[in-house]
Design a protein that fits this description.
Number of strands: 14
CATH architecture of the largest domain: 3-Layer(aba) Sandwich
Number of helices: 13
Oligomer: single chain
Shape: globular
Distance between the termini: 19 Å
CATH superfamily of the largest domain: P-loop containing nucleotide triphosphate hydrolases
Largest sheet: 7 strands, parallel
Order of helices and strands: EHEHEHEHEHEHEHHEHEEEEHEHEHH
Low-confidence stretches: 1-11, 119-135
Radius of gyration: 22 Å
Mean pLDDT: 83
Length: 372
């Protein structure tokens, strides 16, 4: 990722400069800075994906066009090339660019176009890649290659580690879960659970949603499934989960979602709504084979994917073999903690966390750009 210049304030709209050509790059940043908007400068595909939907406008060139063409169609895309050209009109069409300009010859025309650019949303907020936290929320999904990999524990650990620096919401995305409130010792704490929420098509304030949820002593608000001896008709699916994620996206904090294997809730995957997807893969042959199918599916969402090896007492694969079979780079490894299950059963996930578990959680937060 390039160094960010003209860093926008947290409530300021920004122009994303995604230009890889070293000759064209300074010309593009000068024009962007002249608009008075904040400027975020990066050619990193992961950062472009994360910032793409919330930018006031995007300036890109032939080097970054192939990646931008894979992202969701949006207004205010401008292809640039160095004077005297030629302009790559095929790249412009593949990205649905509004216009293409040669710089510096057409700097004035580009400046005018940026001033009249259509906004992708009514009140965009910045997401600054070099900052630890911004006004737009960071969403982290945690899923496993198979059941029993320990995704709930890892999700809660990420939330607990993030709570040192940020306001955090932990979401139970597993319909038949026993309840993430149990994992944090909040089963007796009053507050809304999934069946109590009826957001419908409306979007409530994130602060109001969090205030209705049970919260841990370190400030983690938990949206959990409910336990009932009655036949409850409520079923958690994407129609319930999507409005909550949309709400929390506008909240300046970290949201961690515990998902079933593969990330599917009901008939849809919600990974595409997240900034980072963490895939926990037991270092065994069958889970690794299952992971290969999941990885292929998750990569369609264009969300950054982070693979973590899980050693469940006995591992048939080392890190290299696991990466080869699953087709997923392994960023960290997580072992079994012999004393942790008993501690969780008696009083919930401990604080402080076991050292290695805390280290893995910090790695995830760093990858998501949410570390202080």
């Amino acid at each position: 990722m390039s160094e960010t210049s003209h860093r926008p304030a947290s409530d300021q709209a920004y122009i994303l400069v995604a230009v890889g050509d070293p000759v064209l790059h300074p010309e593009a940043t000068h024009v962007a800075a002249a608009t008075g908007f904040g400027v975020i400068d990066t050619a990193d595909p992961r950062e472009i994906s994360r910032l793409h939907s919330r930018a006031h406008a995007i300036l890109f060139d032939a080097e970054t066009a192939a990646h931008i063409a894979t992202l969701t169609r949006r207004p205010s895309l401008f292809l640039l090339a160095a004077d005297p050209g030629p302009l790559d009109w095929r790249a412009a069409l593949s990205c649905h660019a509004e216009q293409a300009y040669l710089l510096p010859a057409q700097a004035a025309e580009l400046l005018s176009a940026l001033g009249h650019a259509a906004m992708p949303r009514a009140e965009p907020r910045t997401d600054e890649p070099s900052a630890a936290w911004t006004a737009t929320g960071t969403l982290i999904a945690v899923t496993g290659a198979v059941g029993g990999a320990g995704t709930s524990t890892l999700a809660a650990a990420i939330a607990r580690e993030a709570a040192h620096d940020h306001e955090v919401t932990l979401i139970d995305g597993v319909d038949n879960s026993g309840g993430l409130d149990l994992l944090l010792g909040l089963e007796e704490t009053p507050g809304a659970r999934w069946p109590d929420l009826r957001l419908g098509e409306g979007l409530i304030a994130a602060e109001d949603l969090r205030a209705a949820l049970p919260a841990s002593s370190d400030g983690i608000a938990v949206l959990s499934t409910a336990r009932s001896t009655l036949a409850d008709p409520f079923r958690l699916d994407h129609r319930s989960l999507r409005p909550v994620l949309d709400c929390l996206r506008e909240f300046s904090g970290v949201t961690v979602i515990d998902l079933p294997p593969g990330g599917h809730v009901g008939e849809e995957t919600i990974i595409d709504a997240c900034d980072l997807a963490v895939l926990l893969i037991p270092a065994e042959v069958r889970p690794a084979a299952a992971a290969a199918r999941i990885v292929a599916d998750l990569r369609k969402s264009r969300t950054t994917l982070l693979g973590i090896a899980r050693h469940r007492g006995w591992s048939g694969l080392d890190e290299k073999d696991l990466a080869k079979i699953s087709h997923c780079d392994i960023t960290a490894q997580l072992s079994t903690f012999s004393r942790l299950p008993k501690a969780v059963e008696l009083s919930g996930l401990p604080s402080p966390l076991p050292r290695l578990l805390a280290a893995v959680a910090r790695t995830v937060l760093e990858e998501a750009g949410a570390r202080a």
